# Entry
Amino acid sequence: MKIHRCKLPDLTALGTALRRSLPGVPWASIAFAVRTTAASLIALYIAFRMNLDDPKWAATTVWIVAQGNRGMSLSKSQYRILGTTVGAVAALALIALFAQTPELFVLSLATWIGLCTGVATSSRNFRAYAGVLAGYTAAIIAVSAASAPSNAFNLAVARFLYVILGILVEATLTTIFAPGEPVREVRESLGRYVKQAADICAKVLRRKPDGLAIHRLFAGALELDTTAEYAAATSLTVRRKIGHLRTVALAVLSQLAAAQTLSEQLTQRPDIKDELIEETAQLLERVAMAPGRLNAEVVAATSAVDSALLVEADASGDSFTPRLLVLNRLRLLLAALSEVLTRTAQMERADAPTARPDFAWHRDSVLAWHNGIRSFVAVLAASAFWIFSAWPSGAGFVTIVGVVSALFATRPNPVDGALGFLKGAACAALAGALCNFVLLPAVSGFVLLAYIAGFFMVCAGLAMRNPRTAAIGSGFALFFWNFISPVNSTRINDASFLNSAIATLLGIACGAAIFAILFPRDPEAIRARLHRAVRRDLAEMARSPREWNADAWLSRTADRLSRLLAIGSAIPRACKESDLRGLVAAWTIGDSLLALRDFAAKHSVARRPVSVVLKRLHRFDVGRLVSVCDAAARRLKRQGRELSDTERRELLHGAILMQTIADAANAHADFLRGRMTTP
# Structure
């Protein structure tokens, strides 16, 4: 298509018209659709002016990296550049080594994509996206260059230029039209999270527990950390405060874990009614309404609970009454709440950065292997079909299979995602046919191309912002430019269009079919592996407690709860709540174990019983673990009778830690023994 110097469409008028015609669509979705459409058209125009051979990739890149806010776009763009660079280098290496041996070439390409998919499965956020990009960029470049190895370097450079051009244009328009206020957004997200946690904890104390709400809040801590990571990409202030924010998130997680344990204790003993419980619930309600200057009240409530703990300990003799354990958990909840309020205030005042607490994540090595093998088999099968059928569009077919395999293998439900993507690609093929054979032949010049293509891309952008149609919108946005394929010289012809459409749709369908056949999605298997990982970590913690820290253990537990939540409706509600209780109990045992490690370092009287507890837990001898912890707790409590209040409080703390492990292990013995709740 010949281009001329001309004005681009009036985007303000387009946005106003859309706003009037779509009253039920959020303004943010319309702004995203118009902004991204404009960025893709500008990138396409620049690629035309630079006389690049395949300018559609510049426009496509804009849609690939486009996100709802500037921080997400910049983060994704950074990792896209990294993934594209690694993939381009890998493609050049594959061409250099195996261009003359097709069998080894396709085998090594499939291995590379499988390896990248496995690495992506073990990573988080856009770091996983970089692994995906490294895989399918290598497929795009290497397959394109397989028939002309001498052009491999030029293809790699061109691919990199398209990506850089698309990223720069998208980042520029996002910065201008969607600058955002990252500091305010992070503050608001943190404030909402703190209020929601306080509200849920107040309901727990009033015996109105909501297990799934607590489950979602555990996952919310990781979402909050992700939001802060994206905001830090565009704000130095957020970057300095992110360590404080992580500390607050961990304190909220401790508060929620204490509330979950309290919920079980209060449910089992409805006869326990204490004024301190109601006073704490009222305090939490005030935090939920306005978490302002309540630190003094929290400190006073904590002091009252401490005094009640000592009185109850004296009255109960050597035993551990239910009220004593409830008061201890109530104290832990208040201590976590005090940490939340204190750290939040420090974050507001802090100008200097602070060290980030250690966050740890759950890694499912079996799932990583499964996804890697899926991608390997999909690319190998597509390549074999290409070689034996000698299909002229086989290269495009293999490329699409590689893209889909890398892109969707890491999703929680790859088959559903790929089918949605297939629907979007089919819609893009129909729209491309309409443009190629009806609309575009009747016009000339870039402006009319922009008006025609812009209409379809705005619709795609709106679909991408709707969770129900996001996969369809993404598939449409990714393949629409490929189907109309605007180039500087000629339009696409009938045969080329048909071959491209068939290769694209069959490639997506092939990827989805292999996902469905090879290692089909099994939520119960995911649950089982996750439970085994928890028990394995507890055993490792008992073997080498000094290699663990409380922050890493808590964040990994939250990540596991988040992964269970991601399975969705495939697991019944009763099983989800059972998993929540089991995982929190496992966290309680591990956290108490780490606290006992520090306690034993200060009090020699506790070293031998702590050593015995570690051995029993390492062997998962649940029955002996309960009896040992119970006996050690009574002994420590007895030894503290003649000591001063300070020393007695310390020994009581150690005794309660022992009793906490005993109670959690006894109540959740089936979980610790690997017996899962079945639907």
